[in-house]
Write a structure and sequence with these properties.
The protein is of the alpha+beta class. The protein is 47% helix and 15% strand. It starts with 59 loop residues before the first helix and ends with a helix. Bound molecules: zinc ion (ZN).
């Protein structure tokens, strides 16, 4: 999902928290249910032509409304209108169908499934949870609209209330204006192994649209605190009527909340021109997104090689390796400890990489395991992370009947974690490893020179 996030939501990585509200505007903006979003990663080829159920927004008054709003957003955001923007109104099923088609075209099925497997192995999703379908259901319930760079068209859901429809229109038109000056396609393209960088760029894009649309509908985005926005996003998740695991809802909201905080900071510093500069040269990590000083200094993440897995024996191959990033780490830790402790624990992130490995046996049974290697900024930061892991998983290794062993270890600034192997038959899983193997695997990961 990862995107506007690529596919829908969630690199486990992406995630979010919420705090108490401190809503300054008299009437909070209708952020509800707007977890708009661009769908998945941008595409380079035009989408196939096909029938849509709902009418194209062609009624003269609809077109005039879109045009008027385009001019308003252009004025408030300070981006020129280079072209009119096509728009379509679809019902939720129609919107979801487009998103599904987009994801299937742009993102390898294996990558989407890997994401769910990672979340499962780390106990962020229950073992029998259908990640792909669950994510689509969540999106269908929460989406308000999305902008598709491939056909420069805005898609809006047909059942929004007036306020929500206005806010969504402003949000999506901001994406259209961004795209006309700073092509979004390349920024949102699925980038295997570069998930944290994509998440950072995605968040800037969403933060821009969230901030600009609040200027339009609430008078000024500066009347809305970042805390209030987080709370609204959280509430909108709860109100969507879809009971989804917290980590998925948090992942879906993270780009909006973290992106909004980033954009507000840039606007305070240098106005919309500073945001334009960030679209041209986005933060390369969510660490830079979240910390002004690291973005200002362009402090690069520590490059961590993908964990090796010879210990697991022959037949295993890597199906996915990627960077969780500071935002992803925070979202993960939020599932295991308090929001404050999670944020603090993630703030020491220096770099990381995980690998999901799989072996397919003759009878089609798949064995899966996850290895993760994080390098924290300081040893003190690593100790802090280790304390969270110890509280959640115990001091060394835990055998899990459904998911195999989970072991972790800290050495200096390095923290490594091994989860699995376990066997999967459909939605059923069961352990296929032991703590002996997991601990040998940790030793292998720690041997690796950085
Ligand atoms: Zn958006």
């Amino acid at each position: 999902m990862g995107g506007d996030s690529p596919y829908p939501p969630a690199r486990p990585a992406l995630l979010i928290a919420l705090l108490a509200a401190a809503c300054s505007p008299a009437s909070p903006p209708p952020v509800a249910r707007t977890t708009p979003e661009p769908p998945p990663p941008a595409t380079t080829a035009p989408p196939e032509v096909r029938e849509v159920r709902a009418p194209v927004a062609r009624a003269p008054d609809e077109r005039a409304k879109v045009h008027d709003m385009l001019l308003r957003v252009s004025h408030d955001r300070g981006l020129p209108v280079r072209r009119e923007v096509a728009s379509r109104v679809l019902d939720r099923a129609g919107i979801l169908e487009r998103i599904r088609a987009h994801v299937e075209k742009e993102v390898p099925r294996e990558a989407v499934e890997s994401e769910g497997e990672l979340l499962t192995a780390l106990e962020l999703l229950p073992p029998g949870y259908d990640f792909v379908e669950g994510t689509y259901a969540l999106i269908q319930g929460r989406i308000a609209g999305f902008y598709e760079p491939a056909d420069a068209t805005m898609y809006l859901v047909d059942d929004l209330g007036d306020d929500e429809a206005t806010e969504t229109l402003a949000h999506e038109l901001d994406h259209a204006l961004q795209d006309q000056t700073f092509p979004l396609g390349p920024m949102l393209a699925y980038a295997p192994g570069d998930g944290d960088r994509s998440a950072a760029a995605h968040a800037v894009i969403e933060g821009d649209a969230t901030s600009a649309s609040l200027d339009v509908v609430a008078g000024s985005a500066f009347d809305v605190s970042e805390t209030a926005l987080r709370t609204l996003l959280e509430l909108s998740g709860g109100a969507s009527g879809v009971a989804s695991p917290h980590v998925l809802q948090a992942s879906l909201s993270a780009p909006y909340a973290d992106g909004f905080a980033f954009v507000q900071r840039e606007r305070r510093r240098g106005g919309w021109a500073a945001v334009d500069a960030a679209l041209l040269s986005p933060p390369v990590s969510t660490e830079q997104l979240l910390h002004a000083d690291k973005y200002a200094q362009r402090e690069p993440p520590i490059a961590v090689p993908a964990p090796t897995f010879a210990t697991l024996g022959a037949g295993f191959r890597a199906v996915d390796d990627d960077v969780m990033g500071e935002e992803g780490l925070r979202l993960m830790l939020e599932e295991w400890t308090s929001g404050v402790t999670a944020e603090k624990g993630a703030a020491g992130w220096g770099g990381d990489r995980y690998v999901l490995v799989r072996r397919v046996d003759g009878d089609g049974v798949r064995s899966l395991a996850v290895g993760w290697h994080a390098v924290m900024d300081t040893e003190r930061d690593a100790v802090e992370l280790a304390e969270i892991l110890a509280a959640r998983f115990g001091p060394k290794c835990r055998e899990r009947a459904a998911l195999g062993p989970l072991a972790w270890r800290r050495r200096g600034r390095d923290v490594v974690l091994a989860a699995g192997p376990y066997e999967r038959r459909g939605l059923e899983t069961r352990s296929a490893g032991s703590c002996t193997i997991a601990e040998r695997w940790l030793a292998e990961m720690l041997q690796k020179k950085r």
